[in-house]
Design brief:
By secondary structure, the chain is an alpha/beta fold. The chain contains three helices and six strands; from the N terminus they run αβββαββαβ.
Length: about 120
Amino acid sequence: MKNILSIISICTLSFLSAQTGINTDKPKATLDITAKKEVLTIDGLLPPRLTLAELTMKGNHLYGMEQDGIILYITNTSGGDKLSQREYIESKGLYIFDAEAANGEGRWMCLFCYGTL
């Protein structure tokens, strides 16, 4: 009985793929999101959205080396502070976390921001 279960498990696992597709049966990358072509469908990708105040409440040690490259959209900079990791958050926009910046403390850096130099 164990041999039969082992063979079934191996056969099942061989059909699994490490790639995930949304709106596609044949993903071409680790995550492949294919737009729907319908006229009334809104297509796009929404990254996680936080205000500077919400990001400030998370502190300076939640994001580290394991979050290197993570992307957030800052919606509002009127609250919170610009200390430590948040030093370069000047306006709303897309930010990426560079875990190696500032001697390994990490910094949020602008990918595409509004109203910055």
